[in-house]
């Protein structure tokens, strides 16, 4: 009986040892898997952090480039605007000196009209010719932006009028232009020559 029981006991012991060994192997494999997973997780975390930093850097670079592009566009617009203003200014006032020289011609025509006796038949034809010349001259300069400043009966404006004196007048408000001694002119809205005027004042 005892001889037969020994092989069975030995067999059970071997099976137990095998099971224990298998369990140890399984535990060891699980520990290795856990270590591998932890190591992979750490590697992934580091990689994700690197990628996140790269994305942040790229976004910052993109924003910087956008800011540069906006500044360049704004500067280009300012240059274009300044150039357009200079061209407009040069176009408007290129004839300023030439126009100023023409004023004496207009003044002489107007003086001639004032000094002609319109009742004299001999001078009437001359007066008509001078008057037509004067009107044509004024019409021509108006095409190039010149305008006559003739403030007869208007309030005195120191921006466009030059007061040559003052006279008492009870019929008009004070500081009213009584008469124009010499007409003024503007070129494209800019004063070329002020009108020389006599201004009213209240009686003392």
UniProtKB/TrEMBL annotation:
Disordered: annotated span: 1-48
Keyword Cytoplasm listed: yes
DNA-binding keyword on record: no
Keywords: Chaperone, Cytoplasm, Stress response
CDD domains for the chain: GrpE
Record localization: Cytoplasm
Example GO BP: protein folding
GO molecular function: adenyl-nucleotide exchange factor activity; protein homodimerization activity; protein-folding chaperone binding; unfolded protein binding
Subunit relationships: Homodimer.
Protein name in the entry: Protein GrpE
